């Protein structure tokens, strides 16, 4: 029986990548992204299935299943259901959301198991959970920085074109359409990464048992950041807002992210920078 978490960490990262492709397909229908998401999610299901078969082989009676294995079966079934729905229906948002829930259950199940030993000997099991949580959060911030830079470039180009101020150097910059598209794509990458990072943060708080941390400044502000970017995507997909307004809102969402990173780090009870 595998007791070290490296295999389960790999499953969580593959799971994350599959949800990135699913979310990308939801915001802009993309058959290639959907195929990649389905393939990666199928691989997660295969790894889970292999573990379950090994567990069945190891137990003589189903009653001997532990809470870990029971919750693992629940996560496995959620992935299976999402794959079936994905095969016969076009409900990408449902598939994405049910798998965010399955992802959180899988993480809670893995890191609450006392028999698990962390990959690095000098860590405890919660350190490994925090490492994955932080790595996803940092990756989301990188995506938001990239998105903000492209939005800033869009506003600069838009103003130069409106004022008919053109130069040879500006010809080396990408077009308005390109900067808008890349800025949106980066935000689409950052949103699910932040959502999954927050789900792991919730798991960590639940394992710590200090539920007052749900109302910590950094936690609450992180939800505001997520809502700001969701509204940015909503404006583009549903409201069909013009590019300059989208770019302004994207920069505003990035300012909220910076405030969350700086002020939350100062006033947070468990994310202190100073």
UniProtKB/TrEMBL annotation:
Transmembrane stretches, start-end: 6-24, 36-57, 63-86, 93-111, 131-157, 182-207, 213-234, 246-270
Molecular function GO terms recorded: heme binding
InterPro entries: Cyt_c_assembly, YpjD/HemX
Location of the Cytochrome c assembly protein domain: 69-261
Annotated keywords: Membrane, Transmembrane, Transmembrane helix
A biological-process GO annotation: cytochrome complex assembly
A Pfam family this chain is assigned to: Cytochrom_C_asm
Name of this chain's protein: Cytochrome c assembly protein domain-containing protein
Organism (species): Paenibacillus solanacearum
